[in-house]
Design a protein that fits this description.
With about 250 residues, the chain is mainly beta. It has 2 domains: about 80 residues, Immunoglobulin-like (Sandwich), CATH 2.60.40; about 150 residues, STM4215-like. About 15% of the residues lie in helices and about 45% in strands. The chain is built from 2 helices and 15 strands. The strands form 3 sheets. Strands 9, 10, 11, 12, 13, 14 and 15 form a 7-stranded mixed beta sheet that branches. Strand 11 and strand 12 form a beta hairpin. The longest helix has 19 residues. The chain is globular and about 60 Å long. The N and C termini lie far apart (about 45 Å).
């Protein structure tokens, strides 16, 4: 039997409860790695808490996304559990806002590497904005998540629940210059990575999510005078099943 870990979000901004199974009656250590509000992953795992053997452990975590795992003994040998992608939420967070956070956390898990002359996209360049216009604070290349120009869709209904599609614009932005042709393949690789990571997927941290639909935009969409910025991306529609009347 292997050691395993599961998670239940308290949904009140305090963290949640981790449940360990399959371990010996000895010290079990739970480790965490943060994915913060900008999508930046902390550089290393840190101890989140310990307990003796199997059971639950309340972890105090700020609202956000995390990787966690447990380490303990199984039949006297050191073992490591599954790696769980978990979340801690505020009960007051709007579902649309949680969808944006979940998309940012998913993209933070990608390796947006430098290719064919393109500069890599670090996780701290995943920006969440009301409008995806350059605002003087963005470093390029980057990913911008926004809502402008979109509206929710009602995909269907069940008894007492509705299926609502929450839109998120996912744009990859980069400056256009004379090295455009050398960087083209890099841009296309990023587009493929983002597309594959989101389409027909569920998102950790939003229990209401049924699936994600991706509505592709133009492959290359030059913006601003003299084609100063190249934009490529999608409208992501996060399909959620939510209660009616609450």
């Amino acid at each position: 039997m292997a050691i395993s870990i599961a998670w239940a979000d308290s949904q009140d901004g305090t963290g949640g409860v981790a449940t360990v199974a399959g371990a010996d009656a000895a010290t079990v250590t739970i480790y965490k790695q943060t994915v913060d509000a900008t999508g930046l992953r902390s550089p290393a795992f840190a101890v989140a808490g310990t307990r003796s053997g199997n059971g639950t452990l309340t972890l105090t975590l700020a609202p956000g996304y995390y990787w966690i795992y447990a380490q303990g003994l199984v039949s006297g040998a050191l073992a490591i559990s599954n790696l769980a992608y978990v979340y801690a939420t505020e009960a007051t967070d709007a579902l649309a806002a949680r969808c944006v956070d979940a998309v940012a956390a998913r993209l933070a898990g990608l390796s947006m590497a430098a290719l064919n002359g393109s500069v890599s996209i670090p996780n701290d360049r995943i920006y969440k904005r009301t409008v995806a216009a350059p605002d003087g604070t963005m470093a390029y290349p980057c990913i911008v998540l926004s809502h402008e120009g979109q509206r929710e869709s009602q995909e269907g209904t069940t008894t007492g629940k509705d299926d609502i599609g929450y839109p998120v614009n996912v744009w990859v932005l980069d400056r256009d210059d004379a090295s455009r042709e050398a960087r083209r393949k890099g841009w296309l690789k990023w587009r493929q990575q983002v597309f594959r990571s989101l389409r027909n997927q569920r998102l950790a941290g939003v229990t209401e999510v049924l699936t994600v639909k991706v509505e592709p935009g133009m492959v290359f969409d030059p913006k601003l005078p003299d084609y100063q910025i190249v934009v490529l991306g999608f409208v992501v529609r996060v399909l959620c099943r939510e209660l009616r009347g609450t």
